[in-house]
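Question (not urgent): is this output format expected?
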Amino acid sequence: MTRTQPEWIAAFKALPGNVSKSDLTRIDMDGNEQSRPGAVLILLSDGEFGPDVLITERAAELRAHAGQPAFPGGAIDATDESPAHAAIREAEEEAGVSRDDLEVLGVLPTLWLPPSNFLVTPVLAWWHTPRYHSEIITEEVARVVRVPLADLVNPANRLRVQTPSGFLSAAFDVADMRIWGFTAGILDRLLALTGWEVEWDKERILPLS
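Got this back:
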């Protein structure tokens, strides 16, 4: 069945193959021999308040990245056919979505995350039939949120945070959570590259709490 994609999705669909690693990150390194391959799913859809993106909030009890908002995703297993396969599998497990309800738009350059030593491939997808196929009860995910792009670009919701080590990260205060780190960095660049970004105060810097 052929589904008509919304006009706004075209700007995102044009990114795979047309953006470089430097367009998405300041880290000009490709990891090391111990780096593990991973993938995340950037799942876009039309929602009640316009275009949105799916974000999961990690459980507070986790040892790593506890309570941190993130794209659904994780390590690429030996049984995964591709980064897209891995990202969708993780989204099915973490967010209760189905691969039958989405269409992969393409993959972005693989990026290195030094803190976890993952080489992460972002996978862009359009959620043409937004629905959940299971009650979302996992040990890893506290909740799943569809965040409107309009909320992400609202200057009142934008800031930068500084970690104790001095690292500055883009951040978004939306849906009663603060998105920062890798996820916020990707969102920041995608909004700029697709023309969604509006002017905001980049000097609004708060300590990471």
